[in-house]
Amino acid sequence: MAALDTLRAQWAGLGTELLIRATRGICDGSVLNADSGRADTRARIDDWTGVLSLYTGENESISVQATA
After folding, report:
1. Could you give the percent of the chain with pLDDT greater than 90?
2. pTM (global) more than 0.85
3. How many CA atoms lie within 13 A of 53 on its CB side?
């Protein structure tokens, strides 16, 4: 019985370690995706800000602001 308990404890520890490693990988991937998304969004806002600035002379009465 003690051997079975020892084996269970070892497998439980291994399962926990695998779960922690898998979760850590998912979290790291999520952070990378979020950082990439923010960089893409910032680049698009900068692009649109450049385009909108071309029209400010014609439409002075219109207030346009691009934000993230």
Report:
1. 15
2. no
3. 6
